[in-house]
Amino acid sequence: MTAKKPSEWRLATRLVRGGTKRSDFGETSEAIFMTSGFRYDAAEVAADRFAGTADGFTYSRLSNPTVAMFEERMALIEGLPVAKATATGMAAVNAALMCQLRAGDKVVGAKALFGSCRYILEQILPRFGITTELVTGSDNDAWTRAITPGTKTVFIETPANPTLDVVDLAHVCSAAHAVGATVIVDNVFATPLLQRPTDFGADIVVYSGTKHIDGQGRALGGVILCSEAFFEDHLNQYLRHTGPTMSPFNAWIMLKGLETLDLRVQRMCDNALKVANFLAESGKLERVLYPGRRDHPQHDLAMRQMKTGGSVITIDVPGGRDAAFRLLNALEIIDISNNLGDAKSLMTHPSSTTHRSLAEDARLELGIIEGTLRLSVGLEDSDDLIEDLEQAMSRISA
């Protein structure tokens, strides 16, 4: 029987073993190569490596054995040929955009984005003569009108942070490709286990590894996944010369996180559905948004694109910021934190944290009000989380 290639392994095996290369010591856990540079047996070897005519490492800003293992594993999981790790998720977003854009280009994005992503589109890109247009992500006609000849790339989060808006990936990718534009999808909320954007036509996928991939609040990291052609034509030299590099230690942490990603995400999603049902049935909230519930306005689309509803719930608390803060301050198990995708359940107030940089009218347009809270559901017992939320919600009208 012919041995299977790693790309032929089933997902759970790829998550645990993909990309692993052992040293001469035969270690079972991936080795951490904490080195900035590498030595060569001869000057000719160094010349050949820098010329690209010989395999091997030259400098850890460009490539490193531990980082390369993480990249190969991510590529196997996502089903794309190239993965390049970055220091943070925002470094991945910035590089995926900037490597391909020039003055005069146009970018179309959804209005519902993580605050820093929207800042890049609205504040940074225009400084370089790049036009940006933001549309309502759930409006297919708006995408069709906005994506015109001259559009270079389209940037999407789906589900979006924190509104959980869902974008019709197949529709947007079709419209973008009709004018020769690329499509970048920030797939953080869905994770590579729940949604494969390339199945719907996406060209580039980005992640903040800080979230579910690490999953335990230990380290920062990001990753960009793309085709060989996009890497060679755009991304390779941009990363080489700007250096948003992931450290070997953080890559090792991400490798360890991937080993349990499947188990963690499934438990988080199971917990999130139970918690979302409780919150919706409590009668104490103005709104509960969770893609896995039938009352989500885009539930059918979400379930066509995703395997489950994910690990994040968004709620609107009656009484504005004061009531939202009372609820947050009363939590005993769930932590107040702006992170998400962690083993520990975390809740944040977007208006004063992750989306504080947006103007108030922009937040209100998205439906982010002063009573909006985002809950990232973790691995605790769901009944404990429900009891914690129940006692905390009793403080809303205090």
Description:
It is a single chain. The radius of gyration is 22 Å and the shape is globular. Helix 1 (11-17) runs antiparallel to helix 10, helix 3 runs parallel beside helix 10 (248-259) and helix 13 crosses helix 15. It has helices at residues 11-17, 43-51, 65-78, 89-98, 115-124, 140-146, 169-178, 191-194, 228-242, 248-259, 261-282, 299-305, 320-330, 360-366, 382-393; strands spanning 82-86, 106-110, 131-135, 151-157, 182-186, 204-208, 222-226, 287-289, 312-316, 335-336, 346-348, 372-376. It starts with 10 loop residues before the first helix and ends in a 5-residue tail after the last helix. It is an alpha/beta fold and 398 residues long. The model has no long low-confidence stretch (mean pLDDT 96). It has two domains: 6-31 and 64-259, Type I PLP-dependent aspartate aminotransferase-like (Major domain) (Aspartate Aminotransferase, domain 2), CATH 3.40.640; 261-393, Aspartate Aminotransferase, domain 1.
